[in-house]
Every structure is written in C-alpha cells, then in structure tokens.
Amino acid sequence: MRRGRFSRVRALGLLRKEFLQIRRDPSSIVIALVMPVVLLFLNGYGISLDAKNVAFGVVDESRTVESAGFYQAFVSSPYFKPTLYLDTREAERALMRGDIDGYAVLRGDFSRRLSGTGPSPAIQVIVNGVDANNARIVGGYAQGAAVIWALGRLSERASLPAGLVSLESRYWFNPEIRSTDFIVPGLIALIMTLIGALLTALVVAREWERGTMEALMVSPASMWEILLSKLVANFVLGLGGLALAVSVGVFIFQVPFRGSLPVLVLISSVFLVVALGMGLLISTAARNQFVAAQASFIATYMPAMILSGLIFDIDSMPRWLQWLTHLIAARYYVSSLQTLFLAGTVWPILLPCLGALCGFAVLFLGAALLRTRRSLE
Amino acid sequence: MWRRILALILKEFRAIWKDPKSRYIVIVPPLIQAVLFAQAATFEVTQVSLGVWSEDRALAATELLSRFEGSPAFRLAGSYDNPREAAEAISAERVKAVLHIGQTFSADVHAGRPTAVQLLLDGRRSNTALIVQNYAAEIVARYDLERLRSTGLAGQVSMEMRAWFNPNYESKWFILPGLAALLTAIATLMITALSVARERELGTFEQLLVTPLRPLEIAVGKTVPALIIGFVEANAIAALAVWFYGVPFLGNILLFHLGIAVFVLSTIGVGLVISSIVKTQQQAILGVFMFNVPAIILSGFATPIANMPEWCQWVTLIDPIRYMLVLTRGVFLQDIPWPLALQQLWPMALIGVLTLSFSTWLFARKLQ
Questions:
Q1: Has residue A256 got a pLDDT over 80?
Q2: A107, A167, A212, best to mutate vs chain B, most B CBs in 10 Å
Q3: Are A171 and A88 a contacting pair, CB within 8 Å?
Q4: The pTM is what?
Q5: B119 touches chain A (CB under 8 A)
Q6: CA-to-CA distance for B296 and A219, rounded, in angstroms?
Q7: I need a labelling partner for A68 at 20 to 30 A (CA). Which of A30, B58, B142, B188 fits?
C-alpha cells in the first residue's frame, strides 16, 4: 500500500495540509521571511574586513625633524589614526589595555644614525598579536607606511622623483573595493543555508517528536509523497525569503547585480533543494527538536561561515582542508552568488558549481528518503 | 531544600543525557569544529596564483618579475600576451591577480623617468585582493628602494617587526580561545532556552510548579546543569587548544574559570528570557538563533569590532560574547592584568543579573 504509485490527488492534499500548517504556526514564516532580512542587516554591517583608522602609537624618543617626519607618514596614511608617545612604557601600557593595536619605536639616536654616524638605525614595530589576523594586516600597513617614508626621504636627497617605480592597482568587478559588495552575496548564501536547513529540520523533527509523522506514514500516502509535499511547501517559503534577501542586498546595500536573473533563480532553486534536503536528513536522523536545531546550526551555519571562502581564503588553507571544503555545499553557492552579483554570468564558474549542487541535492534527498524508509522497519 | 534542588538538577541532566543523540550533539561536534576551524581561519595568504602580462622583455622587467617569483606569497600561474587573455583568466578565477608590465618599463627605469606597473585584481574577493595588493605593493616598493640605494645613497633604515603575545602570528592561538567561548555559549543557551520550553510544551511545567519546589529552587535547578555543561565544554576546548595545538596558557586558571562562570550565567540569563517569552520549543529555538547568529558576528570572533560602523560598535556592548572573547584570549595569550579582566567581567555580570531577574519576573507574572 505504502509503495503504491504516485497519486496527484494525494500529493496535492498533503501539500494543502503543509500550507495550512505553515499558516497556523507562524514560526515557519518567521524563519523564511523575517530571519533572512534581520540576519542580512546585522551581518552586512557587522562583518567588515576593511581596517581603517587603526589605532597605532609612535614612540618618539629622538624628537627631531626626521622622527617627526616619520610620524607624519602615519598621520597621512589612510590606514592609521596615530598617537604620539614620548615614552615606551606609556605605549606598552596602552597596548596592554587594548587602546592601540601596535606601536613603532624611534630610539633617541635615530636621527644621528640616520645621518650617517654610527650603524643605520632600526625602527622597532610591536603589534598586538592576540588577534593574529589583525596583527598581520596592521604590521603590513606599518611596513608600507615606513617604506613610503623612506622612499620619500631618499628621493628628496637624490633629487629624483618620488617613487620612481610605483604600483597602480585596479580592482575588477569591485573598483571601489567595498567589502559589502563581496560580503553581502556571500552572506545571502550563508543565511539561505541556515534557513533552508532549519525550515525542514525543525518542522519534521517536531512531527517525529509528536508522533504525527507515524500517523502520516500509516496513511495511504507514500514516503515520496510525504517528503515531496514538505519539500515543495518549504521550497516556496524559502524562495520568498531569498527574494527578500536579494532585494535587501540590491536596494539597501546597493550591491550591483550584473548576472542574469533566471540563472540566479535556477542556481538558488537547486541550492534551496540541497539545504532543505540537508534539513530533512538531519530531522530524520535527529527525531527531536533540540538535536535537530543544534545539528542544523553546527552542520550548516558554522562550516558555511568558516569553510566556504566567505571570510577566509580557501587556497591558503592546508591541502586536506581544501579538499574538505568541496563537501560544503555552501562553498559552491557562495562562489556562484559572488560571480553573479559582481562579475556577471560567467559559465566556466557557474556550470561546475551548478553540477556540484545538483549532485548534493540528489545525495541529500536520497539519503533522507532511505533513512526515513529504514527507520520504519 | 538542597536535596530537592539536587534532585531537580539530576532530573535535568537525565533529560539531556538519556537520549544518546542529545548527548552526542552536545559533546562531539564542538570538538570536531575546534579542530577544523582552527586550521581554516587565517588571513595569511600564501601562494597566490598570479598571472603575468608583460610587454617588456628587457632587464628591469625580468628583474622585477623574478622578485614576484621569489616571494612565497606568489606563484606564477600563467602568462598572457593581450588584455583579453588576462581578463578571461581573472574572470574564470584561474588567477587572483595579473601583473601588467608595459612596453616602456625598462626604458623608463633606465632613463630615470617615473613609471608604473599595473596590478589587476579580482574584486569579488576583496578581502584577499586587499591582502594581495599589500604584498605586491611591498615588493615593488622594495625594488624601487634598492634601486635608489644602488645609486650610492646611505641612510638606510631597517625595520624590526615583532608581534607580542603571538610571535608567529598563529591564527590558531586566536581562534581556539575564541571558540571555547563561542561553543560554550551555543550549548548553554540552547539547553536553558529549551529546557523550560520543552516542559511547557509537554505540560510538565505545571507539574513542576505544584511540587514543593519553590520558584527560586526551580530556577537554580534549571541553571546548574547548563553551568556544569558550560564548564565541561570550555575546559575540553581549552585542553585541546593547549595540549593538541600548543596554544600557550599564560594567565590565571582561576580567572579563566571565574570568567566562564560569569559568562555562562549571562548566557543562561538570555536563554531563560527567551524561554519565558516563547510558548513552544520551536519558538525557543528560533529565539536562540535570532540571538546567537548576530551575537557571534558582532562579538569580534572573526572580524575586529573596530572595523564595524560606529552604531554597530555600540550594539556590540550588549553582547556578552564580546567580553568573554577579550577575557579568554587575554587569559590564554597575554596573562591579562586584573583591571582589564574586571573591565570584561562586570558588563557580563550586569547582563547576567539583568536577564536573570527579568526572566524571573516574567515567570512570576505568568504564574498569576
């Protein structure tokens, strides 16, 4: 009976039941329509990788024209908001307190050694390494400012034009290097991962917990029909959330959209099936809401944030971890969205992503179906 | 009274522990994550694939190129003869950047005319692009500096760079203490928010209320298990960090535990507020997510708070995770001085007191 043929009437009836359920319990609607907007807003502003106005100290023990010039180089750099200290201990305390991210020390004999008497001077730069990533960036900026200062001095004395050879950088797809432009498309992917998984994971886990899943199963409806109706109902909800998120990205964060809309809908639909399938699998494995909620968070959101290339560069991870990122579906969706928004419809990137996502969709749905079947016996 | 509370605590533990899946989900995934994420979360960019589009084969151009080749930051991944090929390579993500050297570069350098080389970067990953740009600018500036020096000018300056508390810029040292705070928060919040909501949904909360237990005893019974689980989780990750990854632990271990206690009380408070507002487990879970996800982003876990817009920085002040991150990282890496530790402890304590009393008030009001 349960393995009977697919019946349209039954499937439509089930679908209607799902929609009724969604209408009566607002939590699905909150997940699908409110969460994406709220999350996109907070995260869109909260994740910023542009270090500007870094609080930096310059300890000037030499107090000469040369050392003042060095301080000026930091004042005119767009990256720094420098503070002048006359004593190393003062700067040290400020660093301990977290008031400054680092400081440079110019010793008392700085100018004397610079003008050729004695060995050449050394500038000591201390950065706060507690946030290693930030320290690396601050250190790089400090080095840059110092090199520019040294170049300026040298070219002055040699009466050569400042910076004979310079580097002109151009950023494609994102000429003003607004980090929102690349963060927001990635965030949409991240948020849809969480929401897709939550939608099905929670709803189905509750049915298991309350025993209504068993009730459904003893009905003449086949497993396929039950899962399909849940999938379709939540798919519609999820697409609504996605449309909202994309609108917020384009209209409020002003991220350009250069790709084709039908392609966006296609790839997003496939990804949504993957996320929903992941949720179904989690819920059938978990059978209770606590486990399902924890699992969706841990299995979808956290890896999507850290291993998808959204914040951290995949190519710089250890090789084994790079391989592992191929198992994170969000990785392909992040890459597709960033390309679609900023570069356009670049098929050499989009096609492999689409293929991988289709593979994931089949895998998760198949696994969910198998698990549910087996769990009955 | 103590026996009653103890009985309630044991009951709460059984509620979590009796289901092997709940048991598993509280313990194993956090540890796996600690191992994986510690490896992934680095801003160090190495072996960036660089394309070259050089229209100049003379000495100065080759010399500059060999500097890029010799740098560990770059890996030459292709060379192109025209702008179209270069554009395609970036667009298809075969290379992250293309260095363009124009026809007259060597001649200009030779004649002492100012000249420039162009770097085309993939702005889709602006984070990586910015770091790559910095590396490239430094290589070019050094090249220029050494050329000027070779004209016989003295007065060179050397720069000594030192990172305090973390001399090798190990990202793991920064991520793992952070994860100890983060994963503890995720587990304790969910446990407290759900424990009350589950009883409500199943109708056992009323049963609990008609027992001789007083409201305060119920509150203690509900908080202690989460507190204990929080301690276990934080310690497990700290142990992993120290013994497996070799992260130094320079600070006071008592201060670390004091921090966990205050921090977990504040997350329990938030969890209880959520559970006193909601009616079902599902709503409780949603509440936890609505708190957790922004709280993690705004805590400074992955990106510094100083980079956020001004108003966002104000919002972070009510985020307990923010303070715990400064405290754990401080205890691990810099032997955080007491005044700085207190600066982190009192806001967390305040958040804890406010949320705990607010939730008690909400519960009391609902009972009448």
A1: yes
A2: A167
A3: no
A4: 0.80
A5: yes
A6: 44
A7: B142
